[in-house]
Specification:
There is one protein chain. With about 190 residues, the protein is an alpha/beta fold. It has a single domain, classed as 3-Layer(aba) Sandwich (Rossmann fold), CATH 3.40.50. The chain contains three helices and seven strands. Strands 1, 2, 3, 4, 5, 6 and 7 form a seven-stranded mixed sheet that branches. The longest helix is centred in the last third of the chain and has 24 residues. The radius of gyration is 23 Å and the shape is elongated.
Length: about 190
C-alpha cells in the first residue's frame, strides 16, 4: 500500500507539471526571402519611390492564412506554428521598395487577397490579388490603374508550401507591376 501511495504521489506530481519542464514551441517566423536593404537616407529626395501598400484590417496581422475550399470555403484558418515577420502589406511594400524598379511613378497598392487555398487535402495553391494606381508628379495626377490576380500551386500542402509559394508569387507580382508600368505613357 505504501508503494501505491508513493507511485500515486509521483504520478500526480508529473501531471501537475512540477516534475517535468515542457516548453511550448515558438512559432517560426518567415518573410519573402532575401531583399536588398531599404535606404533610409532622406537626402536622396526624388530617387526614393513613393509606394504605399494598404489592405483590409484582416490582412494586417502576421498570421499565415489558409482556406479549405473542399470542406469549408467560408472558414479562414491560420497556421499555429508559422507566422510572417510582419503583416503581408508591409512585407510586400518592403519587397517593392527594395527592388528599386519603380522610380518613375508613385504607387498606391491595395492588397485584396493573400491566402493559401486548398482544393483537396493534398493540393493547395497560393493566391495574391491586388490593384495598383500609378501617379506621376507625386500624387498629383493619376496615370492609370490595374488589377492583378496571381496564383501558383504550393510545392507542399502545408505552411512551408505557403511560405515558399508567396516568396515566388510576390516577386512575380513585382515583375508584373514593372511590366505594366513600362507600357504606360512616359511622364
Amino acid at each position: 500500500m505504501k508503494y501505491l501511495l508513493i507511485a500515486l504521489l509521483f504520478f500526480s506530481t508529473l501531471l501537475s507539471g512540477t516534475g517535468c519542464s515542457i516548453s511550448p514551441r515558438q512559432p517560426a517566423l518567415h518573410d519573402f526571402g532575401f531583399s536588398a536593404p531599404i535606404s533610409t537616407d532622406k537626402n536622396k529626395g526624388d530617387n526614393n519611390p513613393a509606394i504605399n501598400v494598404d489592405a483590409p484590417t484582416w490582412l494586417w496581422d502576421d498570421r499565415i492564412r489558409y482556406r479549405l475550399l473542399y470542406a469549408s470555403p467560408t472558414h479562414v484558418g491560420f497556421y499555429g506554428l508559422d507566422r510572417w515577420v510582419g503583416p503581408p502589406p508591409e512585407l510586400f511594400e518592403q519587397l517593392l521598395l527594395s527592388s528599386g524598379k519603380f522610380q518613375n511613378y508613385a504607387l498606391i497598392i491595395w492588397l485584396h487577397e493573400f491566402e493559401q487555398q486548398f482544393d483537396a487535402p493534398d493540393r493547395a495553391r497560393v493566391v495574391l490579388r491586388f490593384s495598383v494606381e500609378a501617379y506621376s508628379s507625386g500624387l498629383d495626377k493619376k496615370v492609370n490603374s490595374q488589377e492583378f490576380y496571381l496564383e501558383r500551386p504550393a510545392a507542399t500542402p502545408d505552411a512551408a508550401g505557403a511560405v515558399s509559394g508567396f516568396a515566388r508569387l510576390t516577386r512575380q507580382g513585382a515583375d508584373r507591376i514593372q511590366a505594366w508600368l513600362a507600357g504606360l505613357p512616359v511622364n
